[in-house]
Design a protein that fits this description.
With about 280 residues, the chain is an alpha/beta fold. It contains ten helices and ten strands. The chain has a six-stranded mixed β-sheet, with helices on both faces. The protein is globular, with a radius of gyration of 20 Å. The chain binds adenosine-5'-diphosphate (ADP) and magnesium ion (MG).
């Protein structure tokens, strides 16, 4: 059997309780694998621990348990070694307005990770910046502009280009399209998917929008109270959810799939009929 790209076992994060003493588990024994080139969707209501899970995997948040990326254990890894591993794991956050420095040009924003990880010789940085802009569908002629000159969707393209600058293998996308209008959401989702196919990227795709997750994820994990209550390949998870919480989540939002919606309405009619 081949090793998964990312292997997470019994991941735990606790925060001090806000009121009173003790600690609250935000991530409570989470385990999963992500294969190379695959997407794991992570869904669950607000406060269920999705963001904390992503941050803990990237070692931006102290955690216990095991996180192996490319066969290397990240939990407890010495700083220097971890810094070198950061090249392989990047993140794309929800808000493209706050995650780009307003006083840096796009060229500088994209050059920063290249200089930090020394992946490109200085003389080739401008060339790589242009290549990255083209990769995400932006005109390289706009490299000297500042973030405010770009729309929300374009800014999220810059955020994605920055994440991809150092050729990562794994990207945590935390609600990457939640702040965008529906049309722009589709464009950014399409971009993330085509980049995955072209570059063989693995994603942890965190979202509360179940319709988007269904479209992008190969597998889906459902999180509730810091735990994964159900994890399965995408099609069976949506078609035959086994955990009551998954069913509640799926029933709480309209899934834009006409066949499924008809089936759900018929099911509800049946339930009403049987309780009469
Ligand atoms: N820095 C922090 N300090 C204390 N509690 C936190 C912190 N970050 C998150 N939490 C708590 O951890 C839980 C999970 O939060 P989070 O991972 O942000 O959930 P989600 O992304 O699913 O909305 C929540 O109860 C939240 O209040
Ligand atoms: Mg979150």
């Amino acid at each position: 059997m081949t090793e998964p790209l990312l292997r997470v076992r019994d991941l735990r994060v606790t925060f001090p309780a806000r009121h009173g003493r003790g600690t609250v588990p935000a991530v409570d024994g989470v385990s999963f694998d992500i294969a190379a080139g695959q997407t794991l969707g992570l869904v669950g209501e607000s406060g269920s621990g999705k963001t904390t899970t992503g941050r803990a995997i990237l070692q931006l948040q102290p955690a216990s348990g095991s996180v192996q990326l490319l066969g290397q254990e990240l939990v407890g890894m010495p700083r220097r070694a971890l810094r070198a591993m950061r090249r392989h794991m990047q993140f794309v956050l929800q808000n493209p307005y706050s995650s780009l420095h307003p006083r840096m040009t796009v060229a500088r924003i994209l050059a920063e990770p290249l200089a930090l990880h020394r992946t490109v010789p200085r003389a080739h940085i401008a060339e790589r910046v242009a290549e990255l802009m083209t990769l995400v569908g932006l005109d390289p002629a706009m490299a000297s502009r500042y973030p405010h000159a770009f729309s929300g969707g374009q800014r999220q393209r810059i955020v994605i280009a920055r994440a991809l600058a150092v050729h990562p293998d794994f990207v945590v996308c935390d609600e990457p399209v939640s702040a965008l209008d529906v049309r722009t959401q589709t464009q950014i989702v399409d971009l993330l998917q085509s980049l995955q196919q072209r570059l063989g990227l693995s994603y942890l795709f965190i979202a509360h929008d179940l319709a988007i997750v269904r479209e992008v994820a190969h597998h889906v994990a459902v999180m509730h109270g810091g735990r994964i209550v159900e994890i399965n390949a995408t099609a069976p998870l949506y078609a035959t959810p086994t955990h009551p919480y998954t069913r509640t989540l799926l029933n709480a939002v309209p899934i834009p799939d006409p066949a499924r919606q008809r089936a759900r309405l018929a099911e509800q009619d049946d339930e009403r009929a049987s309780t009469k």
